[in-house]
Amino acid sequence: MTKIGIVVGSTRPGRRGRIVAEWVAGVAASERPGIDFEIIDVADFGLPLLDEALPPASGVYGKAHTVRWAEAVAGCDGFVFVTPEYNRSMPGALKNALDFVYAEWNDKAAGFVGYGLQGATRAVEHLRLVLAELKVATVRSQVALSLHHDFTFSAPTEPGDLTPGPHQHSALTALLDDVVAWSRALAPIREGVAA
């Protein structure tokens, strides 16, 4: 069965990433039965700033948190990255998590659900560059959630409620179709590398 990890890229208190990831998982479960979608929250792994003695490309991991993270990434065929935009880029925690491992990312597909004032489009552009170096094929389809139009807030310090417009649902289903198709298409390459 194809497994797609929904990676929550922010670890910040009060973040909106978890509710966005739950929305993605809910739509995926109802629209794409037969595909295993799993939320992988970077905050659950307690990754410090990269603290491995050897480069990730060596595949030699000396820390328990790295091994745990490597297993989570390796267990997926593709990914949907859920990211906000911090200062025109991705969160530092997400970049750090990407840098921790290497081969576990290779020959997989990824799509993006961004959220922010401009839908995190600049963060997604940076993610595309980093993932290319990790040998991840990124799909063109993406979701750009606006804090002004796709969330409602009761207080500025609360994550708010996600209220995406109907066009966001169709954008998400297109993204999921692409990620699943590319993940399956890349399977022979992953299997060839493993053989």
From TrEMBL:
<dbReference type="InterPro" id="IPR050712">
    <property type="entry name" value="NAD(P)H-dep_reductase"/>
</dbReference>
<dbReference type="Pfam" id="PF03358">
    <property type="entry name" value="FMN_red"/>
</dbReference>
<dbReference type="GO" id="GO:0016491">
    <property type="term" value="F:oxidoreductase activity"/>
</dbReference>
<feature type="domain" description="NADPH-dependent FMN reductase-like">
    <location>
        <begin position="2"/>
        <end position="148"/>
    </location>
</feature>
<protein>
    <submittedName>
        <fullName>NADPH-dependent FMN reductase</fullName>
        <ecNumber>1.-.-.-</ecNumber>
    </submittedName>
</protein>
<dbReference type="InterPro" id="IPR005025">
    <property type="entry name" value="FMN_Rdtase-like_dom"/>
</dbReference>
<keyword id="KW-0560">Oxidoreductase</keyword>
<dbReference type="InterPro" id="IPR029039">
    <property type="entry name" value="Flavoprotein-like_sf"/>
</dbReference>
